[in-house]
Design goal:
Elements: H1 10-29, E1 37-42, E2 45-50, E3 53-58, H2 65-84, H3 89-98, H4 101-110
Antiparallel strand pairs: 1-2, 2-3
Helix pairs in contact: 1-2, 1-4
């Protein structure tokens, strides 16, 4: 077995990044402020923690140093576009749909996590 894992495809890095972004979207939509959200990226995947909600996006095999950097770069680009309001609306809708954001928001509301969405 090699000590150098094969690099992940660009599609897998993008999918991983979008999954973590979708978790961030869910906690924001649930009414949790940015100040109360922590996003952690690493060789084991990504975690979004906020106000009692914890969303993990693990990887099956620890990322190489190169793939970890690629993951952080792609996530940062997507995250920055989303927060700046420059991400295409269709891309937002696709990410939210592919990663079941509505269900995550509903689950948080059922558990009393988040703010008043009607405020």
């Amino acid at each position: 077995m090699s000590n150098h894992p094969r690099a992940l495809s660009d599609d897998l890095i993008t999918s991983l990044s979008e999954a973590v972004l979708a978790n961030y979207m869910a906690v924001r939509i649930a009414g949790i402020s940015d100040e109360d959200i922590k996003v952690i990226l690493g060789a084991d995947g990504g975690t979004v923690f906020a106000a009692g909600a914890l969303f993990q996006t693990p990887v099956t095999q620890k990322l190489s140093q190169l793939d970890s950097q690629r993951f952080k770069t792609v996530f940062t680009k997507l995250f920055t576009e989303y927060r700046a309001g420059t991400m295409d609306r269709q891309e937002i809708t696709r990410i939210m749909s592919n990663h079941n954001v509505a269900h995550k928001v509903e689950s948080m509301a059922q558990q009393g996590i988040g703010g008043d969405l009607n405020a």
